[in-house]
Every structure is written in C-alpha cells, then in structure tokens.
Write a structure and sequence with these properties.
two-stranded antiparallel sheet, alpha/beta, Rossmann fold, single chain, globular
C-alpha cells in the first residue's frame, strides 16, 4: 500500500498581510492547508513542513532569523513533524527532504503552500521527476500578481496557469474539499 505525506511549503509569516511579501488570498489558502493538515494528523500520516530563509540579511523577505521567516501559527509543526529549512526555490535542493521521505517509505506526496508559481511549481516538478505520485491542493496554495515586460498578470491568472500546467503532466490538482471527501 502506498504511503503518503503532506508537504507544507513556505506557509510563513512574511506571506501574510502584515508581512514583507503578502500573497493574494493567503489567509483562505492557509485555512484550507490547515484543514488538510488536521486530516493528516488524525489519520496518523506523515507531515513535513518546509520553511524558506534567504541567506542574506538584505533579502526582500524571509530574512535569516526574522519573525517573517517563521511558520505561520495556522500551520505550526508539532513535535513529531520535521521542519526542512531550505535556501532555494526547490525544496529538494540541498535539504534532507528526500531522506525524510525515504526514511518513512513515502511514495505519494500531497502539496500545499506558497508560492504557486515558484516553490510549489518547483517541488511538484522535482517530486514527479524523482518518481513520487503528487497531488496539489490548489485552493491551499497562494501567489501574488506577477509582472513581465511591463504586463501585470493578476495572481488568480498566474495561479490558474501554474495549476493547469502542473495538472497537465506532473500532479493531480484538486480542491481541499475534493481531497478530503475522497480520503
């Protein structure tokens, strides 16, 4: 039987309204992530938190040791839930994430968090390439408006584009309600 783990990516204070880099819809996404987290805890399934810190003190957000770099209270880890510290977009790069998954014989990942167009995209693609079966809970992820070559892409459109892309070839992309109803 497949073993699953919930991976919570960068649900950190700086992404919330009082932080340095607020995301569109982050509170609602964190509420959905919290619902999925509670279900995993109740089922006794593995939960791994991932937290980003930049290495420079002049980073735009997630500065080393700052309150903004801490996990948000809605999804704080419990004592038996490891927190992976990363310094790159891809949570597998130069971290112990893969080792933690292998130690637990995990074959399926459920991913929630931020930002849809960066760290969610990177971890899902990497996980798929490493052979994991991946599910993304789309309404438990958040992003922000993007800009390219003078054009602003609204957060909702950026999020939809990345979820569509991941759903095409890398993951099953479902709502929290769909995931929790099927579980």
């Amino acid at each position: 039987m497949a073993k699953q783990a919930l991976i919570l990516i960068d649900i950190q204070n700086d992404y919330f309204p009082q932080g340095k880099w607020p995301l569109d819809g982050v509170d609602a996404a964190a509420d959905k992530a919290q619902q999925v987290l509670q279900a995993f805890r109740q089922a006794g399934d593995a939960v791994i938190h991932v937290r980003h810190e930049f290495t420079a003190d002049d980073a735009p957000f997630f500065t080393p040791g700052s309150e903004g770099a801490h996990l948000h209270p809605k999804v704080l880890n419990q004592a038996d839930e490891p927190v992976v510290l990363k310094h790159f977009v891809n949570a597998f790069r130069e971290t112990n994430l893969r080792a933690l998954l292998e130690q637990r014989s995990i074959t399926e990942l459920v991913v929630v968090g931020s930002m849809s167009h960066m760290c969610i995209d990177a971890v899902v693609r990497a996980a798929s390439d490493l052979g994991y079966s991946v599910t993304v809970i789309h309404d438990a992820c958040a992003t922000r408006d993007l800009e390219f070559n003078g054009t602003t892409v609204p957060a909702a459109q950026a999020h939809a584009a990345f979820m569509s892309s991941l759903g095409f070839a890398y993951a099953s992309v479902v709502s929290a309600a769909q995931f929790l109803a099927a579980d």
